[in-house]
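batch_manifest entry 22 of 60
target: HTH deoR-type domain-containing protein
source organism: Fusobacterium ulcerans 12-1B
requested by: lab member K.T.
priority: normal
notes from requester: please return tokens only, no post-processing; we will run our own comparison against the previous entry in this batch. if the run fails, retry once and flag.
--- input ---
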Amino acid sequence: MLAIQRLKEIEKILNEKGSVIISTLSKQFNVSEETIRRDLDKLEKTKVLKRVRGGAYLQSETDKQVPLEIREKIYLEEKHEIANKAIEFIQDGDTLMIDSSTTAVCVAQIVDKYEKKVTVITNSIRVVEVFQDSKWVKIVCVGGSFRKRTKSFIGSQAVNQLETLYANKAFVSCTAVNRKFGVTDDSEREAEIRRKMIANSEETFLIVDRTKFDNLESHLICGLDKIDYIITDQKLSNEWEESLKKLKVDIVYI
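--- output ---
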């Protein structure tokens, strides 16, 4: 297949599915991943798509979030290692709030693997799918407006349901963590969900990889003082460690 034909086929797939994965396209067209990266770079220059690590997607005027299918492929090993560390803090009998982040889905998978006898409160379809055949986990899924890019329920109905639910521990992620402004998100309605999960849990675990630090998004989830533990994959700077120590936030490295 000629390069120009391959570009047209990639555009067609994008228009049908909304996003593409580099490794999948490489196998489909029987070319190297580097060739696919060059193809996507060319399409990005024509404003056809938005490139991210691992793939690309069509931008939406109403939802700027990177599609879940792509985010599930990014830093996957680190996310599983964060989840493996998180399980050390989960005991039988706990009630857990688990958000719709891909790292939180990894936490759910580890909970299922170790057959923890817990109750899980979530707004994530992916988390529900993890536990759908579990003998040990009781699932409470809040409903509301369905957000396709994250496979999650958001909006006032979901927030109102969370209002009457409480947990021992919340495992949440975010788009960015800033030393001055705290924990932020690129989605106002996803931030509302995470804020309520944090408020209605005795302890909060922020589960974030190294790429989230020293960035800032427009919607505040909470200040760093509302977080009890940060579980991350790489040692933070001395400035970060000092700031978190003053706020009595425990840092847990994988």
